[in-house]
Amino acid sequence: MAINPFDFANSINYTKQNIMLDDVAEKDYNSFIVNRQLSYFQDTVLLSNEMNFHHQIDNSLKYQFLLNTVRKRKRYSKWIKPELVSDMEVVKEYYGYNNEKARQSLSLLRPDQLEDLRKRVFKGGRKPSMVTGRNAGNNN
Fold first, then answer.
1. How far apart are CA 8 and CA 56, in angstroms?
2. Could you give the CA distance from residue 38 to residue 8 in angstroms, rounded to a whole number?
3. CB burial of residue 38 (10 Å; 0-12, 13-18, 19+)
4. Would the N or C end of the chain have less CB density within 10 A of its end CB?
5. Distance between CA atoms of residues 121 and 24, nearest Å
6. Given this model, what pLDDT does residue 132 score?
7. Do residues 29 and 62 make contact, with C-beta atoms less than 8 angstroms apart?
8. Is-contact 98 106, C-beta < 8 A?
9. Distance spanning both ends of the chain, measured CA to CA
């Protein structure tokens, strides 16, 4: 039976029970998912970085290290999602920027400025709410 990567993260963070009992479980261990989950918290970010630095060691050693060094605590967070692609496309089209410049500029713009850019870039069509990336609740 395959073990979910989040089960490994839960055992490291909260239950403190060793669930890596055989070679099959060692193959199921996904260090990227576990390290990413641990990287959201101040008390575990350095441990996660250390495991990323030592990527070549066996999965069982990584798991044992984290299991025995991370203090027991409930750690839940939402994963950071990328910004709306449509907003980046609006900035790219209006200013003529590439992806990197548009991403940097997007963090500097306020929501009202983004809305103004959306209106200026909008070329027409049936539903203007499609450009903003929002659901069309009412047709104006």
1. 19
2. 11
3. buried
4. N
5. 53
6. 52
7. yes
8. no
9. 53
In this structure, which amino acid lies at residue 36? R
Are 114 and 86 in contact by the 8 Å Cβ rule? The answer is no
Six token digits for residue 13: 């963070």
pLDDT, one tens digit for every residue, the chain (140 residues):
688 888 999 999 999 999 999 999 999 999 999 999 999 999 999 999 999 999 999 999 999 999 999 999 998 887 777 655 688 889 999 999 998 998 888 889 998 999 999 889 888 776 655 545 555 455 54
Q: Which residue has the tokens 């070549």?
A: 56
Residue type for position 140 = N
